[in-house]
User: What shape does this take?
Amino acid sequence: MPIITPSQVKPDYDVIVVGSGAAGGQTAYTLTMEGAKVLMLEAGRDYDPGKETPMFQTNAQAPLRGTGTPDKPFGFHDATIDGGWQVPGEPYTQTTEDPARHFEWWRARMLGGRTNHWGRISLRNGPYDFKARSRDGLGFDWPFTYEQIAPYYDKVEMLIGVSGSNEGLENTPDSPEGILQPPPAFRTSEHLGKKFMARLGIPAIPIHRAVLTKRQDPAVLPAKIHPGNLRAQKILAQSMSERAACFWATPCGRGCAIRANYQSTTVHLPPALATGNLDLVTNAMVREVMLNPQGRAGGVLYLDKTTGTEHRATARIVVLAASACETVRLLLNSQSVRFPQGLANSSGLLGKYLMDTVGSSLSAQIPLLENLPPMNEDGAGGGHIYTPWWLYKQQLAGKLGFARGYHIEWGGGRGMPGMGAGAGLEHFTRGSYGRKLKEDARRYFGSFMYFAGRGEMIANAESRCELDPVVKDKWGIPVLRFNWHWSDHELKQAEHMEQTFTEIVRAMGGVVTGHVASRNRGSDKYPIEKGGRIIHEVGGAIMGTDPKQSVTNEWCQTWDVPNLFLTDGAPFVGNADKNPTLTIMALAWRASEHMLAEMKKGSL
Ligand SMILES: Cc1cc2nc3c(=O)[nH]c(=O)nc-3n(C[C@H](O)[C@H](O)[C@H](O)COP(=O)(O)OP(=O)(O)OC[C@H]3O[C@@H](n4cnc5c(N)ncnc54)[C@H](O)[C@@H]3O)c2cc1C
Ligand code: SF4
Assistant: This one.
């Protein structure tokens, strides 16, 4: 990636974008394709998926056979560099010793952020999700409708490439004709699960993932995405023609050197850089937003991590896209006489209403899957199927005892065995050796399935982050302190997940082999993961229609500082069961179009 140094930074950008993940990548893409001059500041180092992705290394070629370590929690092959549950020298703290109230924070300090690794599950929020309070009186409504955000979902799906199908199910939106890529074939375990779930009245449909199942059409899509902008169309056509289709052989969490799946580093940043409108500085740790004498955002202060020197960058607009919690931290650290409680915090709500996804999981052994041959699709990571929430009517009638739904990510197959594969087999074999051990390994390998519930969390003020009054990171910047709270709705939802998974396993004639590990639990009584464990954190600077009750308006524009925008998950007012990243990108696109329109009018 062409990258500049702090000494090459110019004084007159239109927009500064902090962060280069899904939010920063999308914001910079939309702005630069329309001609805005953008400076992107990224705290992590440069990362080139084409050269660095360990797609084809076997376990034998990996240190410790690829197993997880504190600095590589997901193992050697994971695309995440300089990240994990802990980042050395950059701690975070908790308000209490009680582990059930802890929030765990996964960060990736690298160009492209977490998009190099993420699961690529890309589900649209549905119409109910944007007006949840109007339906059941809990949480908040978003300040816009599904219909208003739908055109941006269309554009993001066409740009990044999302495979899946249209099924016409309740609150599970279809995409317009010609947008989705075809879904991949189901694996054996997925066919089997679908059959038995149908008997229980539980749906199973192709999952939507940001993976190209065929090459994108550079002759058609760019004109749909950038109507009337011939230069943008040409640049995008070139970028699309450099992306290959998936060959179903390597787990996507390693990253994708052939650009078949979406990563900011392979999909957003190359065309944005090709416009010539993007300057990018890596190892640039932004510490605060500066105010100008007019009380507007004048730019940012950042540290060059390679030298430890401090620099200023200036622009007409500042966009924070550093991931929800980090964006809140930046605002809380931007204190001034005018904003002593942190920038854009006149409502006092900054840091409140932090959300994650409700998570519970269960694994099982299914005798019907024993001794099966491998399939071509087995090699790739990620499920090809999922179960959208199906009990809307029962829930609305008050029959479930909790307010919001969940979807199930499930599957199994013969992926490449990792370190520890086969551990615990003696539970089934009762101990075997020699030839019998090999036969047993072949018999059982691929006969295990997992079921992971991913449920909606309703915003509550007790789940929050604030500045720790004492602890600072290695750069001297105050760190975040978290407090977490699951309400009864989430706890009971997790319980329902577990009951459902157990019922499915029983119907398939299987045996439950594991539940949410006790060290990950966010409750003594309920099978729920700790806050943050699903890595879908959003909120902390909620959007709304009233400046006293929210931090931003519907354009992710802070009420207090009109030229300051937050385009990551921070302005989310709810966290529907649908994984958040597609919505982050759609919102970022919408907010960026608003910035462009306001700059054109001269009001920004
Ligand atoms: C294992 C895993 C699986 C996931 N699976 C899915 C999935 O299937 N579907 C889904 O929707 N979501 C998934 N997610 C979540 C998804 O990755 C995030 O929602 C998404 O990346 C958020 O985008 P972002 O741009 O806000 O943050 P990030 O992608 O984290 O990017 C933020 C960037 O900002 C930089 N930054 C932070 N602070 C500063 C600073 N002070 N100065 C300068 N730069 C800074 C960071 O270094 C980083 O590069 C998954 C995440 C993980 C880790
Ligand atoms: S499975 Fe496909 S999309 Fe995923 S990393 Fe491998 S080639 Fe890329």
Remarks:
- The pocket of iron/sulfur cluster (ligand 2) is lined by residues 211, 246-250, 252, 256, 258, 260-261, 380 (CB under 6 Å).
